[in-house]
Amino acid sequence: MTLLLIALSLLLLLAGLALRRSRRQASTFKALLELSPNGLLILDSQHRIRWHNPSALRLLGQSAQQLREDLPISRWLPALTEIPAPLERIELQLPTSQGLRQQDLTRLPDIDGQTVLLLHPETDLQSSAEAMERFKRSQYFAQIGTWDWEIDTDRLYWSEAIYGMFGYQPGAVTPSYSLFCDSVHPDDRERVRAGEIRCIETGENHDEEYRVVWPDGSVHWVRETGNVVKNEQGEAIRMMGVVRDITDEKRSAQELRQLAHKDPLTGLPNRLMLEQQLGAAIARARAQNSRLALVFIDLNNFKFINDQHGHAAGDTVLVEVAQRLRSAVRSSDMVARLGGDEFVVLLEGLSRSSEVNDEAERISEKLFTSLAPAMTLQGRDYRIGASLGVALFPDHALTMDKLIHAADLAMYTAKRSGNNQYRLGEDPNTHAQVLKSVKH
């Protein structure tokens, strides 16, 4: 039990320092350290106390105000004539109001040039099931677990909280390094292993985010932090650290990214995502000597529907239009909504062998046809017309900004010419076409 508590305290201290850049994580680790039944002291180069947890106050029989005095540790532990070697455990006599009391102390590995001392609790507290249960619960609610790996062996220790992070009930499996490796997502294993090797060889903090595949096949995210423990010869013999479940954090971050790139009503990409995709598409078309088409779409009669039936009906129309446009193009093509009743279609991989006019007419006819069927709103059928502006790369523009401008200008020119017309981006005053085959 003593070794376990020493390990837990060391691990939490290392992890708290390694993750101090995150206020939320630092506060979590601080809370865990304050629940530890072990006393922890951090000393500066003059062996003065710079930090302590509540258990250290109790074990030393001092108040927080007293320990803040600028005095060496020997003032509070007079029997400590010299600081022991790392991982060495010694017995001291501590004077109290009731006489002398034995106090066991272990020096942990130094951190950033600071000495770390661990005060072992009394036997009755150390064996207290209540204290250990409280510590386990704090790990569970913080979604943090501790691990201890004996380097170059299969021996691995997990605290109870880690079992659930890997999809197991506590005690259902025997933790081992091979089980751990098998649980890491195949695409992340090499990176995680490289991080462990770097930590062992350099002593740098190990800090990795990776995916874990549960026995049921579901994928979850964890963040693992740790460091090495060395023997008296300076050889790395173990790695110890903490692991934290960050699945919810990853999911929230993904949702935020989607909000930043998706139109909330239709679920289509928004202007930001369109511009990112268009820039990449132009680069691919240039490299592959292919053509791409950018089509700006503005709905006709939409304002009447919105004013006549309300915004809810207007939203229904926009969602239906989004679905129709999406079904009219290939899965590799993009349909985006810029806002209001303006949509954009991006088509890649078009051949440069066809005539520009023929290509534009083919695309426009397909889009007009998808929008032709009537939509029923409040028991009445309505038809939604559209005006299209078509710009082709490299025929009408060679850069993203100019291609967008050409398509946008062509769309407004088509809108002024009547319903269900398209114009090419090359010259708004030519190529005006009315698709006579589309009857409304």
Features:
single chain; 440 residues; Beta-Lactamase; Alpha-Beta Plaits; 6-stranded mixed β-sheet; 28% strand
Q: What's a concise summary of this model?
A:
The protein is α+β, with helices and mostly antiparallel strands and 440 residues long. Helix content is 40%, strand content 28%. It folds into three domains: 39-120, Beta-Lactamase (2-Layer Sandwich), CATH 3.30.450.20; 131-251, Beta-Lactamase (2-Layer Sandwich); 263-434, Reverse transcriptase/Diguanylate cyclase domain (Alpha-Beta Plaits, 2-Layer Sandwich).
Overview of this protein structure:
It is a single chain. The chain is α+β, with helices and mostly antiparallel strands and about 450 residues long. It folds into 3 domains: about 40-120, 2-Layer Sandwich (Beta-Lactamase); about 130-250, PAS domain (Beta-Lactamase, 2-Layer Sandwich), CATH 3.30.450.20; about 265-435, Reverse transcriptase/Diguanylate cyclase domain (Alpha-Beta Plaits). The chain is about 40% helix and about 30% strand. It has 15 helices and 18 strands. A 6-stranded mixed sheet has the order 12-13-11-16-17-18, sandwiched between helices. Strands 2-1-5-4-3 form a 5-stranded antiparallel sheet. A hairpin with a 5-residue loop joins β8 and β9. α1 (about 1-20) packs antiparallel against α2 (about 25-35), α2 (about 25-35) packs antiparallel against α6 (about 130-140) and α13 packs across α14 (about 355-370). The N and C termini lie far apart (about 80 Å). The model is unreliable at about 1-5, about 15-20, about 125-130 and about 425-440 (pLDDT under 50).
